[in-house]
Amino acid sequence: MMRRLLLLVIIILGSALLLLASCASAISRSVLWRGDSISVEEDGRLVSPSGNFSCGFHKVATNAYTFAIWFTRTADATVAWTANRDDPLNGRGSLAKFRRDGSLVLLDLDGRVAWSTNTSGGDRVQLLDSGNLVVMSDDATGRTLWQSFDWPTDTLLPGQPITRYKRLVSASARGLPSSGFYNLYFDSNNILNLMYDGPEMSSNYWPPPYNRWWENNRTAYNSSRFGSLDTSGVFTASDHTLINASDTGVFTMRRLTLDYDGNLRLYSLDDDSDSDSRSWRVSWVAVPRQCDVHGVCGRYGVCAYRPGPTCSCPDGYVAADPADWSKGCRRLFEVRCGDEVDFLEMPFVDFYGFDFNYTTGLTLETCRQICVDDCNCEAFGYKKGSGECFPKIAMWSGKVSDFRQTIYLKVPMSLLKQPAVLLDHVCRVTERDANVSADYLRVKRGKVEFAYFYWFLAVLFVLEAVFMAAGYLFVFFRAPGPANKLRNEEGYATLFSHFRRFAYAELSDATCRFREQLGKGVYKGVLDDGRAVAVKRLEEMTQVEEVFRAELSVIGRINHMNLVRMWGFCSEDSHRLLVSEYVDNGSLAKALFDDHHILVLGWQSRYKIAVGVAKALAYLHHECLEWILHCDVKPENILLDAELQPKITDFGLVKLLSRDACRRSRSSSVLSRVRGTRGYIAPEWALMNVPITGKADVYSFGVVLLELLRGKRVCDWVEDHARIDFNLLVASLKDKLTILRCEEPASSSWLEELVDPRLRGDFSRLQAAGMLELAVSCVDDDPNRRPSMNTVLQKLLASDNDDAGSMRYL
Fold first, then answer.
1. For a surface tag, which of 223, 334, 335, 610 has the fewest beta carbons within 10 Å of its beta carbon?
2. What's the domain range around 653?
């Protein structure tokens, strides 16, 4: 009896052990084979052979999950990569499935594909010891068909490259996986940059943008655009970027992360006896002083150390959103053109960029008058001694900085004249300790009474003055030649006075006598400093020299990431040429309409192009120094850079209008040279006494939106090119949109037929429906019923944000 009982116990225990082993293998495995899946409910995951990395569903909200790779043996399970960072899945019923066709897909609760590797022929999915998730074939070659290392999010692991086509994008906030506003990328000059790319402005901030590339110890001549981190803590890149961890060694786990606050940091994992709860330490940081990161405090905000980085608003401004300082401050007053104005002093403060008419050797009163006379001037900076004057049309990236400069803020005369006070608020920005150098400011939490703020600044400025003097003497004695005595102020001035006059012989040499033609009258060239440029011949230019240069002086001051950067011009005898940056991937027309073009534009690329073009036109219409109409918006004038970011060219060349000139009639001599392209011209251009306004560009943009959707020219949709046919097409689309509002976009078969068949149904139905509705409103025959470009941009951004949530359809 006892033997039978003992045998029964052994059988039960053995069965239990087998059951536990099978459960463990179901929860944690090393490989996914075809047909295998991981669900949210079972908390399944892939584990690397060493156990250092895990891959599976990561909880980001109460019922929202991403598919991610994380460090297993860390206290906070630090995420290194995310597949669906902007499209979390439902916590119930969602799967990561390795399909029979060899592709790894994420399926939401309703069965929609939220993300896919888009592979075929794959036999297994495996997480390697490097933290790289791979889809591989089991044939003789053992090929890697897809790998997460090719699609970084905000982190680079040792051995993972950053290339010309890939970038790091920060998270939007601490603990949130969604994409933020900061980017690490190679620019068109082959330089690795940190950039703030916000909804209102974009600017680079690392390496120091006021220095030339050679002053930053970089090179622009290596176009391979490649960088990687090795296991010892050394990062190298093709532009000579060199990063060394303070604890170099091969037995430490590391990661290079672009954090939510815009700073790039190299982290090392502490060697702790408790291997499952180790923490990270910073072993290198790109921007030692967090206030030097752009966009931290938004528009009008000022970043200062109290003792940690803190955002404040000038007197007369309040925080737009105290919970999110990237939204900056808003005015409590209004400055109207023609009103009497006064200026409030903000000592020791600077706002980066957006200068116009930078001049040196002026008196304070002269500089003040420049700002008074220009209605677009919001403030001016002035440095005593040198007489440097920085009138500003916008106020971004403010910080307590150079004690030689004072910002004078333009306010209505009714506001009491007194020294400006920074309204104290607690900023969300924090810095982490980094063992890099003695001048890195370590952060300690605590309160600092506002009464001691200026005392603290005084001590800080004295220390900075000592370091600056020592640095100047070091440079002076090390490189005594006058050519080596370049100051940051000179670089800063050069950055905003880059538009210069070229000699015709110089451009002839740069283009090898205009040998390589990019388009009609446009030639590729390389300047002496290594910059690739496009040189455009201007035909039928009849203006006198003074008028020609006056118009170009406005165009030369325009700077927006979605506008081709203008470097200068040539005006010698009959030669009139424009020099602009060279954009890598040619025009949107070739990418969209040429079936043999090497680029294949996916849906996300098309939507990004639509948003970028809208940003550029909104900038020209609403934010520029002068109100500029493009008058020839079409795919041929939209260029694509290496990242498929759109850049509009030929802006301001067809006609530069002031706000008064736009009210003149079509027959006015001011508008006599306005031209456009058939198929993109607004109908009011045919009327003699109707003014041309920004709504003409809106119409052309609407046509471009339709072509992005369809993948072919609008004129090919109809049997002939008569306007009545296009109107019938628009009317038909309006009727179908009315029906679409009553049903789900995913169930609309006609929408599937409308969108470019080359996408094979891989597009967002919600975004496509929104883009179509917006395009139809833009091509309305009545200009008054068309939206402004600001409204167009906001709707596109809103649709993009909505699509990032659970309502997105693929």
1. 334
2. 588-803
Q: In the numeric block, which tokens belong to residue 116?
A: 């896919």
CA 356 to each of CA 209, 370, 380, 560, 658: distance values in angstroms, whole numbers, following the listed order? 17, 10, 10, 15, 18
Domain identity same for 641 and 774 = yes
Q: pLDDT, tens digit, for every residue of 679-735?
A: 888 888 766 556 678 899 999 999 999 999 998 888 777 654 445 577 788 888 888
Together in a domain, 663 and 774:
yes
- 544: domain CATH number? 3.30.200.20
Give the span between the Cα atoms of 629 and 620, in whole angstroms: 7
Q: Check: CB of residue 58 under 8 Å from CB of residue 89.
A: no
Are residues 594 and 566 part of one domain? no
Q: Is 474 contained in some domain?
A: no
CA–CA dist 289, 247 (Å, integer):
21
Q: Which positions are catalytic?
A: 632
Q: Residues 370, 400: contact at Cβ < 8 Å?
A: no
Q: Residue 434 in contact with residue 440, Cβ under 8 Å? A: yes
Among 460, 483, 508, where does a domain finish? 460
Rounded Cα distance between 510 and 763, Å, is: 43
% helix / strand / coil in the chain, to the nearest 5?
A: 30, 25, 45
Is the model's pTM score more than 0.90?
A: no
Alpha helix positions (H), 602-757: 603-622, 695-710, 723-740, 749-754
The CATH number of the domain holding residue 737 is: 1.10.510.10
Q: Would you state the structure tokens that stand for residue 732, as one six-digit string?
A: 């038909």
User: What is 692-737 written as a DSSP string?
Assistant: --THHHHHHHHHHHHHHHHSS-GGGTSSS--HHHHHHHHHHHHHHH
pLDDT digits (tens, 9 = 90+) for 332-388: 888 888 788 889 888 888 898 888 878 888 999 999 999 998 888 999 999 888 889
- DSSP class of 93: S
CA distance 313 to 332: 11
Q: How many domains are contained in the chain?
A: 5
